[in-house]
Amino acid sequence: MDPVFLLIVERNLRHGSLILSPSAAAQTHFIIDKIEGALQCLGVRLEDVVRTRIYIQNKDEWEPVARMALPI
Predict the structure, then answer these.
(1) Would you say residue 17 lies in a domain?
(2) How many domains does the chain have?
(3) Whose CA is closest to 72, among 39, 26, 42, 24?
(4) pLDDT tens digits, 23-70
(5) 55 lies in which domain range?
(6) Would you give the DSSP letter of residue 15?
(7) Which residues, at least 6 apart from 9, have a Cβ–Cβ distance to it below 8 Å?
(8) Which of 21, 33, 58, 61 has the most CB atoms at less than 10 Å from its CB?
């Protein structure tokens, strides 16, 4: 399989009329679900991902974000 590069930038805390939690961990979970859906549309699984980059504004939130991103 050829490599697939996917860039997702999400700064919007809304999904339709739903306002997402201010929790960095909850936002990370939401975004990973969106990424998984985009990958599935390309015929790729989340388990095929070899590298991710997650940037956070508050360095004190790194641990809950890392826990949510661990399956990647």
Answers:
(1) no
(2) 1
(3) 39
(4) 888 888 888 888 888 889 988 888 888 888 888 888 998 998 888 877
(5) 23-69
(6) E
(7) none
(8) 61
- Supply the pTM of this predicted model: 0.69
What is the amino acid identity at position 50?
V
Asked if residues 38 and 31 have their Cβ atoms less than 8 Å apart, the reply is no
CA 38 – CA 25 distance, rounded (Å): 20
42 found inside a domain: yes
In a domain, 40, yes or no: yes
Compute the distance between CA of residue 8 and CA of residue 43 in angstroms, rounded to an integer: 17
| Structure token pair of residue 51 | 């590298």
| Cβ neighbours of residue 19 closer than 8 Å, sequence gap 6 or more | 13
Q: In this structure, are residues 26 and 11 in contact, taking their beta carbons and an 8 Å threshold?
A: no
